[in-house]
Amino acid sequence: MVTDDACDDLSRPNTRTPDVQTSDHGVAWENGGGPRVDDADVRGDVTVGRMGSVHRSLITAARRFRLRTTGLLVAVLAFVLPLTATPSAADHRPVRASPADHRPVRASPAGQVPVRGSAYMGMGVLTHDGWSGTPGRARATLTEGVDVASYQGSVAWSTLWGSGVKWAYSKATEGTSYRNPSFAQQYGGSYDIGMIRGAYHFATPDTASGATQADYFVDHGGGWSADGKTLPGALDMEWNPYGDACYGKSQSGLVSWIRDFLNRYRARTGRDAVIYTATSWWTTCTGNYGGFAATNPLWIARYASDAGTLPAGWSHYTMWQYTSTGRTVGDHDAFRGAPQDLRALAIG
Length: 348
Fold this sequence. Notes:
With 348 residues, this protein is of the alpha/beta class. The chain folds into two domains: 4-84, no CATH class; 125-347, TIM Barrel. 34% of the residues lie in helices and 16% in strands. It has ten helices and eleven strands. α7 crosses α8. The two termini are 64 Å apart. The relative contact order is 0.12.
């Protein structure tokens, strides 16, 4: 590999001070043989005799050749390296925005469809709805929470607990073939630290029926228990990161798919699942259907100073994902109520 330092050495004039001897004829010689040719000699300011003139010509030609080949080498490397660069494993992880970066979050490398299973709650919110601020600090009736997925890995639950986070949802499954490899630490870790926890399923209505995906979810971490510390499972309904935003379904077709999932989840667990969505997606893809509001709690996604207009049927949200740039894990949420209200939801 040619380093920057090596390239500098190739193009830099030789300023080394040589060991010098003087011949009987008064000509200066470098150790190793050959007359010394000073920079003045190369410029033609000094004549050192016929032998020195020949040597000077050879050195001048060598330096010119060295500079030309160095320039050619740099040009070739500048052209070849971008073509041969191979994305690392990190290039396929979802990219999160920093607190100062509110540009749309997209999969990396840009323009490529993300890997199946890499979707997470709120993945499409910034891209489609944007960011317009965060809530004020005066939120006495709200209880802080977070949501996490595999890309966050092992979560520092003690840090979050110390900052006031009281509840958490962890992604358990996606479709019928993906299970979060970090689920045990995330779901169990939040419980162990004292939080009320829950699991969510990222829906892919274009891959299997609602009932089939509900079964997969329940069978792999999405169940519920009446221990006062386990929230009902959540169904993540948002933009399809792998293709058509509405999963290639009509509005009525998506409503039927969601109903199929919710009915099977209730049959398996005895609880009504929470629905996570954004108003704009819900309006576009379900026709702003309001038929689930009477039974299913709403978890609204909006990165702004307030939750904004809610989907039809719901008069209030139960949970609100208000930012993707919060402390420690990025996604932070607010439960509408005090900790005792949160526990009541868990108990059922």
